[in-house]
Amino acid sequence: MALPSRQQFRRSLGNSPMARESDAIYNAAVRGGINPAFVAGLAAAESSYGTAGYARGTYNPFGLGVHLGWRFPNYASATSKLAKTLNEGSYKSLYKNRGLAGIISRYTPASDGNNEGQHFRNIVSYGSKTGGDARQVYVTQGMTPELPAATARAVGGSIDSSALMKIMRQQVANVRSGRGYDRKLGLQLREAIVSQINAANARRQQAPAGGGAVDTGDTGGVSPNSLGLGYGGVDSRKITKGGQGGNWGGSMERALQFVDWAKQTGYQPNTPGRWISQKRSRRNTASGNPSDHWEGSGTSYAVDLGVPDVKSGDRLLTNLMKQFGQPNYRGGSWLNVNRGGYRYQIGWRTPGHYDHIHVGVKKL
């Protein structure tokens, strides 16, 4: 049985607050060994996907520790806590391997005035909107997540499948022996995939003219939908269509490529400390030049990758510059690179750029 696809999972969240973190929630569920279909079903049944009163501002859509006032920094953290509650520590004996009905009888027992049967039906019904089966709470043998789009694109010859299969075979052996799903092995598999994708991207960027994803306009399918960001108006901190060709002369996809690279390192756009600013109504930069962010510049696009602190920004910049092929840039000044008919401008640790990394792209 395959787990729900990321796209189906995202659609099931509709326009709820959780939708903004759909990929991060999905990843947290799989890493924690629980089925994203169950996660979606429980969030719907408990809080209407985070819209219930107690869930607003607490990022707690599952009703975890409500009587204790539990709060989380984001929905992915709440999902990780849910997985730990069902898999580890003192709660493990209450929930592990008891099935959905058994979990409900302890999570929302009838003794507290809950209708266990109705709760079961609600979780299964809402979970089915992901295309999965919420009755299968835990990730078990044969349940594999859909490969992210970036992985699927790289599989066509760039991935060393033997290395990945070795990890997967060990995971299967663990399940068959009774030890169960090994989350550390799951993380190793993910890291191995991401590492090989990064290597494949680097090889593409170093190829002669006509071979690079950033050089030629082949952005590997990067789009607002693939990133889970969504569209919005000017100053909305969401993707803004417009300009030449409807994609700002091709600069939009190239700027968004940096968001994709950031997400591959665990960056969660538009979460606390990690907002993304894009097109805006203000025309000029602090130095008086037209900004790539400006809505009137029809062939440019820019993203500001917010960071919670300078140390986090340094780490993110290092990863981005490895992907971009400029590993020696460490900030402190502006980096300008012309590549494939586009000018890339990157700024970090410059005046006004200590809480975000600026990436501007303009068609030449």
Q: SSE string, helix = H, strand = E?
A: HHHHHHHHHHHHHEEHEEE
Helix content: 40-55%
Shape type: elongated
Output the strand order for the largest sheet.
1-2-5-4-3
Oligomer kind: single chain
Number of helices: 14
The fraction of residues in strands falls at: 5-15%
The end-to-end distance, rounded to whole angstroms, is: 49 Å
Q: State the low-pLDDT regions, or none.
A: 146-159, 202-220
Q: What can you tell me about this protein's structure?
A:
With 364 residues, the protein is an alpha+beta fold. The chain has three domains: 6-146, Orthogonal Bundle (Lysozyme); 149-206; 220-363. It has 14 helices and five strands. The chain has helices at residues 6-12, 22-31, 36-47, 75-87, 92-95, 99-107, 116-127, 149-154, 161-177, 183-205, 213-216, 224-227, 251-264, 310-324, and strands spanning 276-277, 300-306, 334-339, 342-347, 356-363. β4 (342-347) and β5 (356-363) form a beta hairpin. α3 (36-47) crosses α7 (116-127), α6 (99-107) crosses α7 (116-127) and α9 (161-177) runs antiparallel to α10.
Topology:
Elements: H1 6-12, H2 22-31, H3 36-47, H4 75-87, H5 92-95, H6 99-107, H7 116-127, H8 149-154, H9 161-177, H10 183-205, H11 213-216, H12 224-227, H13 251-264, E1 276-277, E2 300-306, H14 310-324, E3 334-339, E4 342-347, E5 356-363
Antiparallel strand pairs: 1-2, 2-5, 3-4, 4-5
Helix pairs in contact: 2-4, 3-7, 6-7, 9-10
Q: Which characteristics define this entry?
A:
364 residues; alpha+beta; Lysozyme; 3 domains; 5-stranded antiparallel beta sheet; 41% helix; 8% strand; elongated
